Amino acid sequence: MNQAELIQEVADEANLTKTQAQDAVKALLKIVMAVVADGDKVTLVGFGSFEPKVRSAREGRNPQTGETIQIPATRVPTFSAGKAFREAVNK
Description:
This protein has two domains: about 1-40; about 40-90, HU Protein, Chain A (Irregular), CATH 4.10.520. Helix content is about 45%, strand content about 30%. It has helices at about 5-15, 20-35, 85-90; strands at about 40-45, 50-55, 60, 70, 75-80. The strands form two sheets. A three-stranded antiparallel beta sheet has the order 1-2-5. A hairpin with a 6-residue loop joins strand 3 and strand 4 (about 70). The radius of gyration is 18 Å and the shape is elongated.
């Protein structure tokens, strides 16, 4: 499912116009990205949680030359599925 299909499903499920659903989906995504980018966690009970994690610095290899390179530490967004979501997937 892509974003356009998600927007259509939200519009149908919530009895909204497509424009209203698009605004709602875009607002939700914008807020989740901003909160996680600020280093906080977003928890949607039953669905899951989004949070930033620190990936430590490590050694890697350039696949073309085989040369060892240093990969710097970075923060990455992660998602952990909630219990209800995991159970729905495992049905």
